[in-house]
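Figure 3 (text version): structure tokens given as input.
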């Protein structure tokens, strides 16, 4: 197998997306352990991160397989190996199966069964329920399917605690509410791509103005959710300050987008949403050790 083929398989895993998934899972692990982690905690966390990375990569590869025809019609995804026909269906399916099996075994044998089952359920939720059923069926695909994307902190918490606590569910709620405005901002300036693909994304089915209103409303609700870690006692004033600034920024972008649309502003909103979630969770991480 030459380097080019390896890169193609690696691309199937959507590495940038997986980085954020593993990072959010790691936050759940860190917050699950009071104070500094022990060597055993670190060992379990490393194995859990690798196992989650493998299963998430499997889900991404399966998504590429199912959506290869759609990806080929969209500029944003036409480069993917499955869309270009560089990897066959059986190669992609086998790759996904191997990753999922290896990751699930690692989690079951070296972390705990609960984490394995939750991770496997997340795989099914994203690869099957979202990709195969919801995405081509309803404009609420992102909302319902967002539950799978919100699972990483829960997986991380379960890996270190062997249970799912309310703190993990708060983190789940934040990502769940963050997902729709994040993806709808992308869909707004990529609307022609989605229209061409035939996917019933909200800007295609309900129009630009309605989607912009939904983005604004979700950022407002998300603002409140981002304050919950402080209200519940998971964090201190450091996190609260970061949450207020970041959430105010996201809401401001949502408000501007609602008032006056442009593709450039939609792009900025999408990019800021990535900053919002990454820095918010980083603030939780720093706050935990101060």
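Below: residues designed for each position.
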């Amino acid at each position: 197998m030459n380097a080019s083929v390896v890169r193609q398989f690696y691309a199937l895993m959507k590495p940038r997306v997986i980085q954020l998934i593993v990072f959010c899972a790691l936050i759940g692990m860190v917050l699950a352990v009071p104070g500094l982690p022990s060597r055993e905690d670190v060992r379990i966390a490393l194995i859990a991160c690798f196992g989650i990375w493998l299963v998430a990569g499997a889900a991404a590869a399966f998504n590429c397989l199912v959506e290869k025809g759609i990806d080929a019609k969209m500029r944003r995804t036409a480069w993917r190996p499955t869309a270009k026909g560089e990897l066959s269906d059986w190669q992609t399916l086998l790759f996904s199966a191997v990753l999922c099996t290896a990751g699930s075994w690692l989690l079951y044998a070296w972390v705990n069964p609960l984490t394995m089952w939750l991770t496997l359920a997340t795989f099914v939720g994203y690869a099957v329920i979202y990709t195969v059923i919801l995405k081509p069926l309803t404009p609420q695909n992102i909302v319902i399917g967002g539950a799978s994307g919100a699972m990483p902190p829960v997986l991380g918490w379960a890996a270190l605690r062997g249970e799912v606590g309310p703190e993990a569910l708060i983190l789940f709620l934040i990502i769940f509410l963050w997902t729709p405005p994040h993806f709808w901002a992308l869909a707004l300036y990529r609307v022609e791509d989605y229209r061409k693909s035939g996917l019933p994304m909200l800007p295609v089915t309900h129009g630009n103005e309605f989607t912009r209103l939904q983005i604004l409303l979700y950022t407002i609700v998300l603002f409140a959710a981002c304050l919950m870690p402080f209200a519940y006692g998971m964090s201190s004033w450091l996190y609260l300050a970061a949450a207020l600034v970041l959430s105010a920024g996201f809401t401001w972008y949502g408000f501007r987008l609602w008032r006056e649309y442009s593709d450039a502003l939609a792009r900025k909103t999408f990019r800021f949403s990535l900053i919002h979630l990454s820095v918010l969770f980083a603030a939780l991480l720093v706050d935990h050790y101060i």
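The chain has a mean pLDDT of 95.
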